[in-house]
Amino acid sequence: MPQVITFGETMVLLSPLKAGSLQEAHLYERSFGGAESNVAIGLARLGIEAGWFSRLGK
Q: Where is the Carbohydrate kinase PfkB domain (predicted)?
């Protein structure tokens, strides 16, 4: 069982690969963000067992 469990929402961050307006971008770099997820990831990188859970809406 994890030592720390976080809960909350995680967001998908989309960043265009080329400079310019978002409307003209065709390729994006995808990453994940959100305070809860970042804490769990940071703790796991430090060797602490961490878990995360959330809930999807309808």
A: 1-58
